[in-house]
Specification:
The chain has 260 residues and is mainly β. It has 3 helices and 18 strands.
């Protein structure tokens, strides 16, 4: 571990902005900007913290997360690829795919002309991934830190055949009390209710208030959504592009008990 950190530091560290450290057996990149700081695990290309200056962390992380290779990190922003949720034909394959269970390579680090700090990580197919998904691919995740946190995920087909995949940036947000927040931006949009075998509903309320387990996939949705957390006196705005589905999920108490 120490040798790997030393090699990465020699090639990719940027004084005052990019630093390599570890959490148990996992190598972590610490990103620092005058307006915020963030932490990214090379295992899974997993953003585990985003903390604007003077504020609490925007992301929630389970205090029971093990940070061990072979097991998913619980919280932060997991990368789901090449499928979302359980595999549709083989329940033995890992939930949400294998990208969050692989160590990614550092592709590059930089400070942009705007002053934002950028980290790029890459994952390529291997004999091990082809046992789970028989395609040649290259994933590149770009994490840009400034006044905001911006993440982009790009998949390139490196083979000669077309393939279909699903991906997601499965963000867990830290809030004061889930029953006291409001979600703004979904009024008038339709969603699949994942708890009722894909029943389609349309939201008529101005705000979505979480009062039970929820699994809503809003489709044809490209708008911003805002988490209004009045007890914490803050709002979290989620903007996106390149996607037409936004998922709102909370496992509530009973389902949460069954999550490892």
């Amino acid at each position: 571990m120490k040798t790997s950190i030393d090699l990465l530091s020699a090639k990719f560290s940027i004084h005052g902005h990019i630093k390599f450290t570890s959490n148990r057996e996992i190598i972590v990149v610490e990103i620092t900007h005058p307006y915020a700081k963030a932490s990214v695990s090379l295992y899974g290309a997993h953003v585990i913290s985003f903390q604007p200056k003077g504020q609490q962390d925007v992301l929630w992380m389970s205090d029971q997360s093990l940070f061990e290779e072979g097991k998913p990190i619980r919280g932060g922003i997991p990368v789901c690829f090449p499928w979302f949720g359980p595999h549709e034909t083989d329940a033995q394959k890992p939930v949400h795919g294998f990208a969050r269970l692989k160590r990614w390579e550092v592709f590059g680090t930089s400070v942009l002309q705007s002053g934002e700090v950028q980290l790029q990580l890459q994952l390529k197919d291997s004999p091990e991934t082809k046992l789970l998904w028989p395609h040649s691919f290259e994933l590149l995740i770009t994490i840009t830190l400034g006044k905001t946190l911006e993440i982009s995920l790009r998949c390139t087909n490196k083979g000669n055949e077309t393939f279909t995949y699903s991906d997601a940036l499965h963000s867990y947000f830290a809030v004061s009390d889930v029953q006291k927040i409001k979600l703004l931006g979904f009024k008038g949009f339709s969603y699949y209710d994942g708890l009722e075998k894909g029943v389609v509903r349309k939201q008529s309320e101005e705000f979505l208030i979480i009062q039970k387990e929820e699994s809503r996939r809003y489709f044809d949705f490209t708008d911003d959504c805002i988490i209004i957390d009045s007890p914490s006196s803050r709002k979290i705005r989620v903007e996106k592009k390149g996607s037409r589905v936004t998922l709102v999920w909370n496992p509530w108490a009973n389902t949460a008990k069954n999550i490892p």
